[in-house]
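REQUEST
  id: r-88c1
  op: predict_structure
  target: MFS transporter
  payload:
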Amino acid sequence: MNQTTPNTDAPGILTARERKRLTKPENERAIIFTLAFTGLIASFMQTLVTPIVPELPTLLNTSASNATWVLTATLLAAAIITPIAGRLGDMFGKRRIALLLLVLLFAGSIIAALSSDVIIMIVGRVLQGAGLGVIALGVSILRDVLHPKRLGGAVALVSATLGIGAAVGLPISALIAQNFDWHVLFWLSSLLAVIAIVLVYTLVPVSTLRTGGSFDFIGAVGFAIGLVGILLAISKGGEWGWGSPVTLGMLGGGVLVLLVWGVFELRTTSPLIDLRIAARRPVLMTNLASITVGFGFFATAAVLPQLLEAPTTTGVGLGQTLLVSSLCLMPSGLVMFFIAPVAARLSAARGPRISLVLGGVIIFLGYALAIGLMTQVWHAVLIATAVGLGVGFAYAAMPTLIMRSVPATETAAANGLNSVMRSLGSTVAAAVLGLILASNAVVSDGRAIPSAGAFQLCFAVAGAVALAGVVAAFFIPKREPAYQTASIPVVAAKEPALP
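RESPONSE
  id: r-88c1
  status: 200
  body:
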């Protein structure tokens, strides 16, 4: 007599199908390619609308101030969702949450592709911004499923996609925007999202790691409110006025909410972010350095395009088109791709701390060089390439430093917080450098164009911030007890480490 076995799988426990899948040998190269490709798609969302920003008020029949929310909404969504998704990934499976984020990215792309209204567009961009959380999740998945010999190179590559996708995606977006209807940008992103969903579902294995406890809903809400207040004050301060009650209220309220949130997190048994782990010197110093790296990387995107596209009548601008300007920034992304394996080897041989320090020094030297080299197009290409080289070393090191300092069950949440620190640095860079450029301008043909001194001051500030990151990196301990890297039993690697 045949008997059927009832399904007794409980929530958070691997199903029979998932357990069966783990018995099959995994193609590690396919996993790395999939997660890197997914990261590229997610980071591409950052620069997707950059070429059409000046036309957004006309395209969406709205005011210029309302149109800026198309960019701001993506930033806020990414900053809030990334650590929350990380915690959910630690609890319920990183692959499962990564797929959910990709579905949100796809939904946001479809909504934006069908929209001609600013509110609907903002909704779509919020969902697209949520997709950026897959980069931190991808790095965490690598820790769970790869052989340790492959881990360093793979982490360096996937982490670098945050910069590679933004730099390489910009000229693609500009080319599409100049030759096709702007909605094509979002149809392309929806197609890429579908490809990513299929690849992740097919090729990425289920992680066996699950952390216990319940999800901290109160902590998630408090974190979101506090972070939104601070990021809105920083990103909109120039528009609202830095001394306006709205800006000061947002900033002060955000800080106050996060202070109360911190006390709550220290007292709860299952916090969204374990602040005791985040306060450890290796994690804290890495996160502080991440702010400076995010600042340094975004400075090229904030300053160089204005220098390249400004008219030559001012004696400062280089008079290039948006497409040429974006092509000049593309080498920064390409060099990050090619430097990832080199940075991984350096981290394996001398420790990731050395890679982070080296990256910060290169960023500093790049901006120091920029102060005296800003009169030719190739100067801008050289600066972008140098900064991309430094960011490549730093991005390769930061996730490894984090993962060495936290338990495997906290990987995704810790990497998510580190991603927020990078975003915070980028937001501060946009506000500070935007203020400098706007406050030091000359009028040419009825347009306010930043002066030579404004560009030089921006480069000096970016270099100083990079140097501060180097100082923070020196406070990271040279040797720290490392946690186990893999959750899936592995056999000796038959292939050499990722080149």
